Amino acid sequence: MSNPGDPQRSQQDRGYYGAGWSQPAPPAPPYGAPQAGPYGAPQAGGSYAPPRPPRAPADPRRAFAPGASVTNTAGALIAVVSIVLVEFVSGLIGLLGASLVVHPFSSYGTGNSLIGGFVSGVFAAPFPFYAGAFLALAFLTPIARRSPLPTVLLRAVLAGAAGTIALALVGVFTGSVGAVRYGGARLVIDIVTTPLQNGVPFTLMLLATSTAAWLWLGRPRGGHRAPGSPGTPGTVRPADAVPPATVQPAPQPRAPQPPVPPHGVQQPPSDPWGGPAPR
């Protein structure tokens, strides 16, 4: 029977975790295996992935700046929705004028009504241009606030070209169906002439609406800065300013004072012989 006070016996009873359990210690990892360091990072001997360098900011003067952000989406919405509003007001004025002669819901020509022509001319037919221009402005050629105006206009032209190409792609399907009944000329009209007829004026309007969106988001200002912004007077301490002391001076030793005699004891005079005799 072992002695309860034996230190070896108590160490065995404590176990690896020191709580009275006799679990064996975990086995050591084999040589060369990666060992987990602090925060889960592998130590020396294992595979280590170096941290990625910070991404360089995009050049605001480039024509293409791929990326998505809330600011890019807002600029694209302002530019494209403005074109839709212009087309809506223009089509509504034409609808009101034509309704004075023809009933808005009566069919005419090929069987379309004024309301149907209004919806088709304002929303359905130019929708591929709206979608293509919006995607280009939101993800490829954004209306960035840091970009100068010539770059913004160039990006608007590229977005208009993307919308025109979207109209041509849709014209491939509609022209293929129309070519069966009207011949190959319908295919040329839907792929070339109609997309250019609608894309050119839409691109010109996109130049104006992109400029308005650029001004709305906040164009870069040259020499004028808001008060309190970095680099303005009052935000940077002058170079010759004396910094505050960071080391406290050491306390000066006090001069020793003479002991105070107890109560009732007469203190002897400091100069018992008196001062020097007058000459």
Describe the model.
This protein has 279 residues and is mainly α. The chain has 6 helices and 2 strands; from the N terminus they run ααββαααα. A two-stranded antiparallel sheet has the order 1-2. Helix 5 (149-182) runs antiparallel to helix 6 (184-217). The chain starts with 6 loop residues before the first helix and ends in a 62-residue tail after the last helix.
Chain-wise SSE layout:
Layout: H1 7-14, H2 70-98, E1 107-108, E2 112-113, H3 114-124, H4 127-139, H5 149-182, H6 184-217
Antiparallel strand pairs: 1-2
Helix pairs in contact: 2-3, 2-4, 2-6, 4-5, 5-6
Keywords: Membrane, Transmembrane, Transmembrane helix
Organism: Curtobacterium pusillum
Region (Disordered): 1-64, 222-279
What would you say about this model in short?
The protein has 279 residues and is an all-alpha fold. The protein has six helices and two strands, in the order H-H-E-E-H-H-H-H. A two-stranded antiparallel sheet has the order 1-2.
